[in-house]
Amino acid sequence: QVQLVESGGGSVQAGGSLRLSCTAPGFTFNSCGMVWYRHAAGKPREWVSILSTDGRRMYTDSVKGRFTISKGKAEDTVYLQMNSLKVEDTAMYSCNQYDGRCPEFVWGQGTQVTVSA
Predict the structure, then answer these.
(1) Which residue among 18, 42, 47, 52 sits deepest, i.e. has the most Cβ atoms within 10 Å of its Cβ?
(2) What pLDDT does 103 receive?
């Protein structure tokens, strides 16, 4: 099993930006499609963005045009660039595998994003 580590969250005002990072120390994601999830209080966890092994990028409707998923050049980090943040983006964000031939990942602790009006 490989441990995931998310970082980059924080508190910002509406309209601000954050860049989240997902890593697995000592591991690269070159054979993994990855997905970012978020879990807001009182709501079910939802997928936010997917970067599949064939390079497709998918976004849930509420973040289209504002969020961008990517992998770092060394493919050891998966990023989620979040622009024009809204109060409703407030949630705990976490990452995991979407597709590909990767070992089972252990969920990280996530990274909290809090957007204030």
Answers:
(1) 18
(2) 86
Q: Which of 24, 50, 51 is nearest to 37 (CA)?
A: 50
Which amino acid is present at 22? C
Who has greater pLDDT, 1 or 13? 13
Mean pLDDT of 23-31: 93
Residue 104: is it exposed, middle or buried by C-beta count within 10 angstroms (0-12/13-18/19+)?
exposed
Give, for 101, the enclosing helix (H) or strand (E): none
Q: Are 52 and 71 in contact (CB under 8 A)?
A: no
Q: Quick one: average pLDDT of 36-56?
A: 97
**How far is C-alpha 31 from the geometric centre of its chain's CA atoms?**
17
Look-up: residue for tokens 């509420």?
62
The C-alpha angle with vertex 4 and arms to 34 and 16, in degrees rounded to 5, equals: 70
Task: Please say whether the beta carbons of 35 and 67 come within 8 A.
Answer: no
